[in-house]
Amino acid sequence: MIKAITPTNIIDKDKMKYLLESTETHKIPLHILGVGKEFKFLSKIFWLAEYLNTIENDKTIIVYTDAYDVFYIKGLEDIKKSFVSLNKDIIFSSERCYWHQLDKDKPLYDKLGKGKDYRYLNTGGVIGYVGALRNFFNDLIKLLDTNWFDLYIANEDSNFNGNRVKWGDDYIDQMIISHYITRSLDKYNVGLDYDADIFYTPVEDWDEWDNEKNTNFTFSEDGLQLHRTESSPCIVHVPALPGRLPMLEHLYRGIYE
After folding, report:
1. DSSP 3-state helix, strand, coil percentages of the chain (rounded to 5)?
2. Helix runs in the chain, H state only
3. Is there a smaller number of Cβ atoms within 10 Å at the N or the C end of the chain?
4. Mind listing the pLDDT tens digit of every residue in the chain (257 residues)?
5. CB atoms < 10 A from the CB of 23, how many?
6. What's the rounded Cα separation, in Å, for the pair 1 and 56?
7. pTM score above 0.90
8. Which residues contact 27 (CB under 8 A, 6 or more apart)?
9. How far apart are CA 149 and CA 142, in angstroms?
10. Residue 173 CB neighbour total at 10 angstroms
């Protein structure tokens, strides 16, 4: 079994148009977490962990994406096949830009993704088996109340100018998950979607929606063919809306219109 999940505290059908319409097209039941709750970036971690704790079958596959800047190109069975073929228990989406992460962690991501264009973590999309995801996020949450967070995150986050703060402040989930991965590679069978087999996250591809500048993708019978990775992704995630909305709209129209 595979399930599609998204977090949002407000159901805004206009902002969620692309996600809602694409999942409906592919007959994908969409489970929405967090409606009516207070939202912070770390809510994405806590809401997912709470949901995972309600699922008994550890082999259920969960695909978890952002809500406002994402749409599906393929159905759940195609996504499942792509995930299983990668032979990992957890796969995070990846992008070409290193941001919202600690400077000291970048060399490891460069090493792990050597030769890959999309080698940096993006937490706007993750897929994995429930058992593995549950262990990963429950273990991470436990660390937020220990010296691990204070020593390795709070005091090294330049956004807070070295001030000591608590995790309850508006920390970016990407920074915390990124650092946790670097410190726990031997504990989980986790990887990044280097070849965009599942997630296409076009950070630094911003101008490539313009036909005259497009060097990376063409629309195809499979929905989208990426040239850099020679892959046909299943899900598109265009971060930094509303500024990047033209690219999201262009990709959506090219596939669905």
Report:
1. 35, 20, 45
2. 17-25, 43-52, 76-85, 106-112, 130-143, 147-152, 173-182, 245-256
3. C
4. 999 999 999 999 999 999 999 999 999 999 999 999 988 878 899 999 999 999 999 999 999 999 999 999 999 999 999 999 999 999 999 999 998 888 889 999 999 999 999 999 999 999 999 999 999 999 999 988 777 776 666 656 555 444 444 445 567 889 889 999 998 999 999 999 999 999 999 998 887 887 677 788 999 988 999 999 999 999 999 998 888 999 999 999 999 98
5. 21
6. 12
7. yes
8. 75
9. 10
10. 20
The Cα 217–Cα 209 span in angstroms is 9
In this structure, are residues 106 and 138 in contact, taking their beta carbons and an 8 Å threshold?
A: no
Residue in the block written with tokens 């097209």: 25
What's the CA gap between 40 and 120, in Å, rounded? 22
Eight-state DSSP code of residue 67: S
Strand order in the sheet with 70-72: 70-72, 235-237, 199-200
Question: Before 239, cis peptide (omega within 30)?
Answer: no
Cα 208 to Cα 22, 120, 202, 205: the distances in Å are 22, 19, 9, 6
31: helix, strand or coil = strand
Residue with token string 């990426």: 226
Domains of the chain: 2-195 (3.90.550)
Structure tokens at 244: 């990047």
